[in-house]
Amino acid sequence: MKYNLKNNNLDELISLAQKGDMEALEEIIRRQQKNVFATLYYLDAKPDEIMDLTQEILFKVAKNIKKLKNPRTFKSWLNQIIINQFYDTLRKKQKTIKKVCLDNDEEKIKFEIPDFASNPYQRIIDKELEKAIKNSIHKLPDPFKAAIIMRELQGLSYEEIARATNSNIGTVKSRIARARLKLQEYLKPYIS
Questions:
Q1: At which of 72, 90, 108 does a domain end?
Q2: What b-and-e string marks burial along 30-43, b requiring 16 or more CB atoms within 10 Å of the CB?
Q3: Best exposed site among 14, 67, 83, 135 by fewest CB in 10 Å?
Q4: Domain residue limits at 99
Q5: Are residues 11 and 86 part of one domain?
Q6: 188 — alpha (psi -120 to 50), left (phi > 0) or beta?
Q7: Last residue of a domain, one of 78, 108, 138
Q8: CATH code at position 134
C-alpha cells in the first residue's frame, strides 16, 4: 500500500524505516541520492565510478539503518559511510592496478543549474568559476577536502563532521580553516 511520505521530515522517515517500513526507506534513499552523488563528485571520484559507489553507499544505508541509534545523527552517519566507502575503494585500487587517467573534460560529469536570468557572458564566467573551485578543492589534502565539502557544500556542523571523520572538533576546525586559506590562495586570481 503506497502512501505519501514526501511531507514527513527525515527523523520521522528514519523512525519508520527502522520499524521496517520499506516505503519510508525508499523515500530516504530518494532524498539522499543526489547528496551522496555530489559528495563523491567533489571528493574526486571518477565519473564512471560515481554511480556504482552511490549505489553501494545507499545499499549500506538501507542495510544498516536499524543500527542508527539517533536519527538526528543521520547526516554525519551517512557522511561517515560515504567517506569510508570512497577511501576503501581508493585503497583497493592502489593495491591492485596503477592507472593513468586519460579522461578529458568533456567526459566528466557536470553539475549545471540553469539560471535563466543571467546572460551568456555571466554563464561563461560562472562555469569557469565552478571549474576553478572544483579544481581547487581537488588540490586539497584528503582530510581538508572531506572536511570542507561536508561543511561548505553539505552544511554539516563541526560536531557532525567530527563524528563522520572520527576526529575531535578542534582538528575539524583546524582542517576547515586551513582548507579555506588554501582555497583562497588557489582562487586569488578569480577574486576581485
A1: 108
A2: eebeebbbbbbbbb
A3: 67
A4: 1-108
A5: yes
A6: alpha
A7: 108
A8: 1.10.10.10
Residue type, 59: F
What is the DSSP track for 55-104? HHHHHHHHHHGGG-S-GGGHHHHHHHHHHHHHHHHHHHHHHH--------
The domain that holds 32 is classified in CATH as 1.10.1740.10
pTM: 0.59
Query: What tens-digit pLDDT sequence spans the chain (192 residues)?
Result: 456 777 788 888 889 999 998 998 899 999 999 888 888 888 876 777 888 899 999 999 999 999 998 888 898 899 889 888 888 887 777 665 444 444 445 444 444 555 555 566 666 777 787 788 888 888 899 889 889 888 888 888 899 888 888 899 999 999 999 999 998 898 888 776
| Residue 3 grid coordinates | 502512501
Place of cell 539517533: 70
Q: Are residues 90 and 161 in the same domain?
A: no
